[in-house]
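Weekly structure sync, notes
Attendees: PL (lead), two postdocs, one rotation student
Agenda item 3: pending single-chain targets
PL asked that the sequence for the first pending target be pasted directly into the notes so everyone works from the same version. It is reproduced below exactly as submitted, 410 residues in total.
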Amino acid sequence: MFRLRLLVAVIVLLTAAVLPALSKDSDEVELGRKLAERFEEKAKLITDEALLEQVNDIGQRLAEVARTLEVPAGYGSSDLAGFDYQFKVVDNEDINAFSLPGGIIYIYSGLIDFVETDDELAGVLAHEIAHASHHHVMALSKKQSKMDAVIALVALAGGLGKMDGRDLINIIYGAQSIRTARITGYSREAELDADNTAVVYMYKAGFNPKGILQFLRRLDSQEEQRGEVRNLGIFQTHPPTDERALCIAEKCAALGIPVDIREIAHLAKARVEKTEINGQQMHSVVLADRTLCTLAECEGLSSQERAEQICATLNKLLDEGINPKQVAIDLETAELRCGKTVLFSVNDNDTAACGLPVSVILTRAADAVRFAVWSDWVKTGWNNSELYQAALTNSNRPIGAGSGTARIEK
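Predicted structure, written out during the meeting:
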């Protein structure tokens, strides 16, 4: 679920309310039907045939894959279920979607307005289908039921042992906090499993799995602009967007789908920008929104060609891993070096065009590289993120090389 907003808790509570009324042989389809009835008592559904047909066409392509292809579950169960998936659109401006047991999936009209391509919509639907096909809600409800039983035993033991009332309340409160943290952890596991499974469903159904990455990135940017609270502690039901994006990128790379991990993870990436100095057209290398250098023509190479060469070298070095201590300037040779690699050299044309001495150009460039490296380290856990390193390694492999995971053929 892309924007849960405590939806897991609500569904689990509704499940607990419905389960006692069901016989032991009742399955997920019956449970989902009863939950849907309750939800639709208050929800307003859209009946526009053209819109419903568009959503259903995309959803059924993905549903057919879910019914026939067993994808190992990272959470819940991967047992195939022949659900008759239903896709319903809720008249609500929120960017949201959720699924019920048995394959009833609700998409909010605000989400449909937000997506820009069929691939993005397919990413959302595939994610929700994965929740249903891997039986996530049932697994979550079972986990909570077990923990509720533990809390009851704690209360009973405290009562029988004539424990002080305040101590008993503190213990129960602590147990409930632990339950919340664990349920949150389980739901985060379910989200990551749904992401990974969605990539496979999309790939098999003929959609571009990058659509789910594009959706996540745009949604994350919108939430940042709104200033929404991101750090919810034990109540945070979704993994951080960067973590989700890296997991999806790694899964894409395992399927042979090329991804740009630096762009996905919002890491520093050198790029060329056109600029004009004193009426002269030149090109600059920009890194982490800082200008690394501005270049003039030199030795038969145009300003753009020089900038592109520097970008290619620098991005390769960043992928391999640069330590800020490796960044050094050599005023005698007018070079900026990263370890043993010469990143670029400053010539008379550059200094004349920029109106700056060699020392200033090189110092600013070195500072820009160091800043980018430190920024990346902070974002990826001080350059220690196993997830980032795995995704980066896979993204640099030739298409079809795999990553130790069996390639799923179309």
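Discussion points:
- Residues 271-379 form one domain.
- The first helix runs from residue 7 to 18.
Action: rotation student to compare against the earlier draft before next sync.
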